[in-house]
Amino acid sequence: VGMQSESQTRTSLIYLHVCFGGGSNFEEKDLDLRLANPLDLRNDTVFSLPFSFGEKDLDLRLANPLNLRNLLEDKKFTKTRLVLLHVAYPFAKEASYLVSVYPQVYLDFGLAIPKHRYHRMISSVKELMAIAPMNKVVMFSTDGFAFAESFYLGAKIAREVVFSVLRDACIDGDLSIPEALAVVKHIFAETAKQFYKLNVSSRYSDVEPLHLSTSFKKEQNSPLTDVTLVRVIPQERFYSSVKKHGLGLTIECMGMTSLSDDIAQDTWISPTGKVRTVPDLSTKCRVPWAKHQEMVLADMLTEPGKPWQYCPRDVLRRFSKILEDEYGLVMTVGVEVEFYILKTVLIDGKEEKRIFDRTPYCSTAAFDAASSVLDEIVASLKYLNITIEQTHSEAGKGQFEIVLGHTDAITQANNLVYTHEVIKGVARKKWSARYVYAKVGSNVFRYSPDGSWLYRDEASANDAGNGSHVHISLSKNGENVFKASSDYNRHGMSMLGESFMAGVLSHVRSICVFSCPIPNSYVRFQNKAYNGLFLCWAPESIELTMRTCSPPGTNGVVTNFEVRTFDGCANPPLGLASLIVSGLDGLRNNSKIPEPVDPFDYYIFDYNDDNEDIRLPSSLSCSIIHIFSDDWFLELLGENFLKSRRGICGDEIRYSCECGRDPYSEVMFKY
């Protein structure tokens, strides 16, 4: 393609017409028919059309592949396959168009690599793949000749170019990684084998791929708190040993509190021995803000295949399995994650953190001011395949919320761990540039009368704390069965949904041991402060402990219920497991939920001893008392497990009472 005159181009097309069985009625008598007469190429014939750029005796202006349209429209040639070689240079877009509309046209990008400059190689292949089906960019050929280096460099650079193009396609969301791998196989082997009917086999590498990370970030939760413990392992050791056998961790370390490195007293955790922290490879992912690292969650085992009794991830799995085995149900969870962003400023040569923003709830100004941080947080969460439903500024000064979409409880527990890590990791990255720091704990800002505490001029004692309100629903075979059906409808809930919610409501005070796990958590429980004080519920009332929810687009159907006694200091697996434990009690007893309260009458409740049986715990100590009076929790979780949790709570209470510094700012740095 690229003849010296339009006449020669037309003559060549007539020649093709004859070769493909079109007869000999044509004007140009100088064509040598002796080559055409023996050929019968109508049936599944392959014809390659070279585009010979780089040869000045050929006129590329006449090489536009759109000139083939009349031939391609002829019904006699529908089985004749044409391969446009050399990326159809300089008509890659036109060639890509032909491939997208004519099933018999295919593309080859030989000679473009390594003939072009590197940037042009990438752009040429991208142009070819812009609208052309991936399985019709038929193959790559080096078009090498004479020198061995031309074959080697062509193959080497082709791999780099295709990787660059497909990597960008994956980042942009055009392709998934499995789809990109399939495209690679098609380009370099499979399509050519099918196209030319080559009876050869292909073998793809099954060797462990090269991991680009220079270190491997391995994470696990402390079993009875939510302070994340991390071990960093070089990738070589991880894949040679830790991947299979895990790491040893002394059992005694599992008794540390969230506020100090001291081992808590009376935890019933052995002072000797080790557990294995074995990575759960299904949770392995690259760290979005440090992509030379990867992170993974770990299970705690006493021996291969045998979970440790205090492993929080196993506790959640165990009760999720009971729920599914006995009732065929899966608890699904959505979470409203709240956090603060603080700016770092220099005062008298010292770095101090100050309120990022002073605007009200859902302010556009607050979101705009923090958009660079929030954009990176949301992008990092999407990179980890964590569904984000919305984000907005909250009631606190510099407070924001990210809403995680519903998924099963086990996956959501993993998502919560990673979400906290992303928020803090991105904030630290910005903080290093004297920008911001995020806190996901439950603390409400406080200041001392003498003004000695951090934030003394910046925050109010009435500023909002950070919750992680959870939205609970039930799924059966992928269908929401929490909502009412034609068989049962009470307060918009199914029988299963009502019983599960009734169980949670009746055990809220015991749940608080895990969902509100530090003394500071209970400062949030205040009247008329978006956190109820009493054991009651109502539809769509955020002033109460629990509420049923009817999202937009559901025509008033109740799809889930919200529990507001859950904050950012909770251990995600243990907090969600305690909800399942409570719901199981409701299901086994076919419990009925009390009538909803009228939000206008809610404030007639007095905070006095007469209402002791209907109010939430006023402190972590009260929560501990309640759970040891709860026979159901004692039966399912076991007395030793609860005693271990009580030991850690006791030390945290003592630390909070005896701490000479501001306990609220202490919590912020721990979480």
Can you give keywords for this protein?
glutamine synthetase activity, 3 domains, TIM Barrel, Gln_synt_N_sf, 671 residues, Metal_Hydrolase, disordered N terminus, 19 helices, Creatine Kinase, Chain A, domain 2, Ubiquitin-like (UB roll), 10-stranded mixed sheet, 35% helix, GS catalytic domain-containing protein, alpha+beta
Architecture overview:
By secondary structure, the chain is α+β, with helices and mostly antiparallel strands. It has three domains: 6-195, TIM Barrel (Alpha-Beta Barrel); 215-315, Glutamine synthetase, N-terminal domain (Ubiquitin-like (UB roll), Roll), CATH 3.10.20.70; 316-670, Glutamine synthetase/guanido kinase, catalytic domain (Creatine Kinase, Chain A, domain 2). β13 (330-347) and β14 form a beta hairpin. α14 crosses α16. The protein is elongated, with a radius of gyration of 33 Å. This is GS catalytic domain-containing protein.
